[in-house]
């Protein structure tokens, strides 16, 4: 009896210990998945400086070498925590050994360019359209369900019932759309660059989190309604990165889709599941945790864990599987070396819907920088598409 009782006690103790370990492991997995999900959905309020300015010499600037600063094309540099901005052009000299790259200095828009640290950006243009492009600009407020949101409107040179709405990406600013203004304006189109929820300087959503396009589309619908009230009969939607995901939700869910004639997507998120899995791999997160994070986003019971007001159903953002639902002509611009939003889903969508999707494939550009590498090609592609 004693030995049998002791054996049972040992067995129970072992089971309890094993159960505790398993429970702790499960809690750890859920915690890691919840943390990763929150990181995906949380706006980046302050981006760190990522570029070292080593020397400024007349019409050139020498920078520390990194994948951005060695890339071909023209770009912007935020200076002194956004109190300044400079524009740089092509690489003049590259010395990988010393870690120095000298580029053209195309101008200092405001502030002072000196040695120290700066932040690289693909916007190139830093100020509103009137100051950066010399085009008449209206500063308007768009009525939304959350309150008014600021927007820029660049009226066409002559009266037009065509309007383009430019939608920036995750963590980006309205300035991201400035590169598209000139070709659209030259095509006789009114151009609107709106804010949406959780933008810097705009209203926050109910939870202060990104919803991967699943709620942001309503703010773009309101921007479109603003255009319709001002006489728009045709809408052109243009989206970069997550802005592409927002545009696709707008096409699927908004009554304004009937007004849309052309869609331009630059490095768009065609499938958030693919993007999240890519970033999980890049950050060394095990695939099961990455998969669980996507599942938690969509569960109503996990809203507090993830920190969202409404579930974020990642499956609804997969436009490769939903390709048959598309009805609008799309110009899809994407570089095969995109390090942030992999090109695979874009290529798959183009293959699935060749009747609607025109694929413009870049070879060297990285994320949303196709215009920067070859602005003439980008603008000609967009001009030809919206004029067809």
TrEMBL record:
GO terms for molecular function: catalytic activity. InterPro entries: AB_hydrolase_1, AB_hydrolase_fold. Residues 165-339 form the AB hydrolase-1 domain. This is AB hydrolase-1 domain-containing protein. The lineage of its organism: Bacteria, Bacillati, Actinomycetota, Actinomycetes, Micrococcales.
